[in-house]
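User: Need the bound-state model for 2-acetamido-2-deoxy-beta-D-glucopyranose:
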Amino acid sequence: MDHLLVLLLLSSGLQAEGKHNSTESVRLVGGDSRCAGSLELKHQGDWKQVSDTHWNLKKAAVACKELDCGSAVSVGWREESSDRSVWKIKYDCVQSGSALRECARSDSSSTIVNLNCSESVRLVNGTSLCSGRLEVKTNQSPQRWSSVCEADFDQQDAEVVCRELGCGAPSVLQGVHYGEVEVPMWTKELQCGGHESALLDCRSSGSDINVTCSPGKVVGLTCSEPVRLVGGDSRCAGIVELKHLDWRPVINYDITPETAAATCKELDCGSAVSVDGKEESSYRDMWRVSSDCVQSGTVLRDCVTPWHFHIALNLTCSDLFQPNISVSSSMDGDSEAQQQRFQVFRGSTFNISCSIQPQYPGGSFQLTFTSSNSAHNYTQPAVNHSAHFLFPAAEPVHHGKYSCVYHVSVLSHNFSSESHLLSLAVSDLLLPPNISLDGDSEAQQQGFRVFRGSTFNISCFIQPQYPGGSFQLTFTSSNSAHNYTMPAVNHSAHFLFPAAEPAHQGIYSCVYHVSVLSHNFSSESHLLSLTIIDPTPFIIRAVVLPLTLLLVNAALYLYCKVLTRLLFGPLTEMKHAVC
Ligand SMILES: *[C@@H]1O[C@H](CO)[C@@H](O)[C@H](O)[C@H]1NC(C)=O
Ligand SMILES: *[C@@H]1O[C@H](CO)[C@@H](O)[C@H](O)[C@H]1NC(C)=O
Ligand SMILES: *[C@@H]1O[C@H](CO)[C@@H](O)[C@H](O)[C@H]1NC(C)=O
Ligand SMILES: *[C@@H]1O[C@H](CO)[C@@H](O)[C@H](O)[C@H]1NC(C)=O
Ligand SMILES: *[C@@H]1O[C@H](CO)[C@@H](O)[C@H](O)[C@H]1NC(C)=O
Ligand SMILES: *[C@@H]1O[C@H](CO)[C@@H](O)[C@H](O)[C@H]1NC(C)=O
Ligand SMILES: *[C@@H]1O[C@H](CO)[C@@H](O)[C@H](O)[C@H]1NC(C)=O
Ligand SMILES: *[C@@H]1O[C@H](CO)[C@@H](O)[C@H](O)[C@H]1NC(C)=O
Ligand SMILES: *[C@@H]1O[C@H](CO)[C@@H](O)[C@H](O)[C@H]1NC(C)=O
Ligand SMILES: *[C@@H]1O[C@H](CO)[C@@H](O)[C@H](O)[C@H]1NC(C)=O
Ligand SMILES: *[C@@H]1O[C@H](CO)[C@@H](O)[C@H](O)[C@H]1NC(C)=O
Ligand SMILES: *[C@@H]1O[C@H](CO)[C@@H](O)[C@H](O)[C@H]1NC(C)=O
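Assistant: Bound-state model below.
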């Protein structure tokens, strides 16, 4: 269906303008039609040209409306050879709804403004000059602006309208309720091929037919801004160029963060990453943004004025919005943290959430992890533009940096966008407990020795941090292992072994277990090494050996005595000297 039905709606609000009776006081001269040319105002009986070096489409739109022309399509100004008496327009006066001539003051200048308005098509009540409810001026007499029935309007028709208004390609085409407006009187059928430069150039059936707009909606249309980024690495980075009559760079002055953000968004390029100036080799025709025009979110096109300059606006947008990364921990009562450093306790549950502003459906989130000695990626599909990565128990291996990378495929192009980095530190909630043998915690390096058969006592102690809890005494040896458990009393526990056995020889440690906010934590002491020594070798060493030595010495003495008596007889002086 490439035909168009134009409905003439009889309604006071939609009838020809003339509110300010200004057809008598505004005119465009020297153009191709009454809707193009240099702007002249009749004020206090004088026709004079209008001068404004910050002349832009928003201001031109006021003149187009007073002239009962369509939308403002392009603006320009030129230098005349000499100064002349002109009207200057106070913009805030115009903005408040006053007629142009009421806002004029006499001045002298050589700069003369001109403009082109569309003749028979306009968009009204939109957020910019490129959006709104479509109205067409029929060439029947009397000429009237009428809405267009949604049901019979298609993409090709929209292309013609957007082109005629000097906007970019159509982006949103939707019905608008015409509510209080009265029944359509007649319709006129048009058939656009899509390539026409003006809607009234489209073929017309010529026959009037009687239809009402069903289901009661007229055309609302949004054309994109004719803006592009050139010379960058991607379609989302480079010098900002805007098309009015031709493509020209935009000057980097008066660009607010909101305007940069709106431009990136307009280009479906996510958010603005950087804004700076690019020096050109020479002065050339550019567009300058008028600061008095730009309000938050205003599109560039409505607010630029032709300028001769040499520094262009270089804008870098992220292809996509930047995803958010946040972490919540069970120990934190589920409070979420978006700060860049976060601490979780060993053993606690933590939950890393990735989310992105809705932009495209689907996609997936990749959680990347890097630490000094390892790296890992986890992937989950995006559900409602977010994903949650749950870690049931924090361990030291989770210590490192995390980021969320959103991947999405749009029109068979893969895009991805990464969040900022989040540093996660895993620390122990509990201090390590102390282990001691019979109250002695020194000599842990060399180990403890206990006599076989004797009583020994291994004590576990922890600095008071949390009430309750229990101690587990773990034991391992070359051929066995055992755990003993006791509740913590006064933050300690004593494991009594009434008689040391060789089976008790091995490595001991105290493990303290406690539940905090319904999470279990534990912490382990140093290792204690225990050797069981047999008492028998001691008896031999302490009693048998000294006794043997004594007997041997006594035997040698007697032997010496006997020998000396045999050799020297009664010579007692000699025998005393030898033995
Ligand atoms: C418009 O102006 C003309 C003369 O300039 C005057 O006769 C006419 O009444 C005015 N119309 C309105 C609606 O103000
Ligand atoms: C108006 O349109 C004509 C024809 O497209 C063009 O030559 C002229 O420069 C335009 N004027 C302005 C002020 O944009
Ligand atoms: C549309 O704009 C006209 C003036 O241009 C205004 O009177 C009217 O209230 C607006 N309607 C809506 C729905 O905004
Ligand atoms: C359209 O309908 C109106 C009233 O419903 C009628 O007066 C008019 O003659 C009709 N026009 C045509 C062309 O049928
Ligand atoms: C534009 O800015 C980006 C980011 O600052 C930079 O990498 C790039 O080189 C600039 N391009 C030009 C043409 O200056
Ligand atoms: C993870 O955190 C998010 C946001 O705080 C929450 O919606 C989600 O239910 C949590 N997931 C789990 C398994 O706790
Ligand atoms: C991301 O974080 C910012 C600021 O921290 C917040 O304003 C925004 O709403 C968040 N976006 C999403 C999708 O959670
Ligand atoms: C994780 O993914 C990134 C790309 O997103 C890749 O460069 C990196 O090698 C991956 N790392 C691991 C450990 O798979
Ligand atoms: C996604 O969001 C919608 C609306 O907010 C909700 O009804 C739905 O349950 C959500 N789905 C999931 C899986 O969270
Ligand atoms: C996009 O990614 C998907 C898988 O993630 C891959 O199969 C496909 O080839 C990619 N397309 C392009 C154009 O790189
Ligand atoms: C526990 O051991 C630490 C060092 O390991 C020591 O500083 C502390 O005093 C000990 N506490 C007790 C109660 O023995
Ligand atoms: C002792 O407890 C630890 C956990 O604390 C466990 O890994 C080990 O298997 C247990 N050993 C025995 C022999 O029960």
